[in-house]
Amino acid sequence: MNVNANGTDIILTNVCDFRLRHIFECGQCFRFNRTNDDTYFGIFKNRALSISQNGDTVILHDTSRTDFYEVWHDFFDLDTDYGEIKRHLGVDETMRQAVEYGSGIRILRQDLWETTVSFIISASNNIPRIKGIIERLCEHFGEPFEYAGKIYHAFPSPDALASLSERDLAPIRAGFRDKYILDAARKFFSGELSPRTLSSASYEEARALLKSINGVGDKVAGCILLFGLARREAFPVDVWIKRVMEYFYFGSPQPIPVISEFAKTKFSGLGGYAQQYLFLWARDNKIGATED
DNA sequence: CACCAGGCAAGCC
DNA sequence: GGCTTGCATGGT
Asked: Distance from residue A95 (CA) to nucleotide B9 (C1'), in Å?
């Protein structure tokens, strides 16, 4: 990959294993959306980005070399060799197909706190509504900032939410999840949970700490570990993963713990990557779902 | 109008 | 311990 600047654009050429549609449509990130055929626009922390792709050329619009190297390079996980990961995962016909289908997936390195709240909101919800709730949360309580002449809102800090009541969150229309968001905010605000504590904890310790938040169970904790703490061994089992694993590896319904154990053995430290390839493939092709 | 959405907690036995 | 049910809201 080569990096060049052209005015306020950063141009990446010879980019491998990178496709915006795969990255942003595999359900890991809720604040980026497609604006036209090959362009996505979104917000991460207190920065916005418009990014487009044509083959193996990627353009980051209205940014700088500094922001590219300090923010976006890490966000897009550009130091990780996905070719190597895909070779390790493509050990059977199912995984070969899943990896081929989502060949441009990269697991974004997202913010821990934002990921925690986002996946609390994801419980028993659908992606368009998850995005709506998150945007309302940001508009009401996030710090405004400017990008390309327009005003956007950062994700609200724990401090901004910790002293709110459920009534204050009513306009967000998060439903029964409002009290879970507040519990998470209070635990992060008080320091009971912190990025430093969770980063330095072992996988199982971090998982247990996250599950101390009301509204965080095994599945949501798995997503936070995978997307917010870069624990790539996490294999969160949602309805789609459950279906695709049952369909290809078991042939019959299985309890979630059975699927988790199977994945742990089969994928080892690469479970999170496997999960993303399987999720995108299963959902796009409705694998295992009942016909309409 | 049922039924479901990247689940979870509380209440049962 | 495992199993069932209610949960807010919006889309199909």
From this structure: 35
A5 Cβ contacts chain B strand, under 7 Å: no
In angstroms, rounded to a whole number, what is the distance separating the alpha carbons of residues A156 and A162?
A: 10
Backbone CA torsion sign across A15, A20, A23, A26: negative
Residue pLDDT tens, chain A, 292 long: 999 999 999 999 999 999 999 999 999 999 999 998 889 999 999 999 999 999 999 999 999 999 999 999 999 999 999 999 999 999 999 999 999 999 999 999 999 999 999 999 999 999 999 999 999 999 999 999 999 999 999 999 999 999 999 999 999 999 999 999 999 999 999 999 999 999 999 999 999 999 999 999 999 999 999 999 999 999 999 999 999 999 999 998 899 999 999 999 999 899 999 999 999 999 998 787 654 4
How far is it, in rounded angstroms, from Cα A230 to Cα A107?
8
| Tokens 């779902």 -> residue | A289
Q: How far is the CA of A125 from the C1' of C10 (A)?
A: 9
Q: Is the CB of A45 under 7 A from strand C?
A: no
Per the listing, tokens 């009942």 go with A290
**Which amino acid, one-letter code, is at A143?**
E
Closest alpha carbon to A97 in A258, A243, A285: A285
Q: Where are the strands (E) in A78-172, listed by range?
A: 144-147, 150-153
Q: Is A86 a catalytic residue?
A: no
- Cα dihedral angle (A194, A196, A201, A206), rounded to 10 degrees? 30
Q: How many CB atoms lie within 10 A of CB A66?
A: 8
